[in-house]
Amino acid sequence: MFRAVLDAIDLRILKELQADGRMTNVELAARAGISAPPCLRRVRKLEEEGIIEGYTALISAPALGYDLVAFCMVGLKHQSEVNLKAFAARVQQWPIVREAWMINGDSDFLLRCTAQNLTVFQDFVIEELTADEHVDTVRTMLTIRQVKKLGLVEI
Which of 34, 51, 82, 136 could form a disulfide with 77 if both were Cys (CB 3.0 to 4.6 A apart)? Predict the structure, then answer.
């Protein structure tokens, strides 16, 4: 994979879009210090190059009744490529798992889960996660509160 070469204007565009992806191109151009047509061209180029992966709305999980956030560190019985891929595919089927990372260390995967309550989360861990044929160990961590939330990368 290549590392993008971005100038100061590209970086300003990315920083502004990461803070507010709904602003108009005219507003974005003003914040970036350029006119609207070249701003739109730059945004399209950033999209085409995969630097801007997409746009999404950030939704309040508690407002929709999802009051629990937990992390699960999962160790597999065997770390063969076949087993790692099989478990990664299985994770895609669990809506409660909102993010999943293959990791290095004592565990093989780190899962961020969001559930309506502790009972729903416990049912998932017992009936789905630990019951998976590839899973050897599961360590869960319940969160207390989020203390920092920023865009995905520093710009």
Answer: 136
Per-residue pLDDT tens over the stretch 47-67: 999 999 999 988 999 999 999
Do 8-48 and 62-142 agree at the fold level? Answer: no
Task: Output the CA torsion 50→56→60→65 (10° steps).
Answer: -100
Write the DSSP symbol of residue 64. Answer: G
Class of the CATH domain delimited by 8-48: mainly alpha
In this structure, what token pair is assigned to residue 41?
A: 């061209």
Query: Which overall architecture, per CATH, does domain 62-142 show?
Result: 2-Layer Sandwich (3.30)
Helix axes of 36-48 and 25-32: crossing angle, nearest 10 degrees? 100
Q: CA separation (Å) from 14 to 64, 95, 141, 152, 154? A: 29, 30, 33, 11, 10
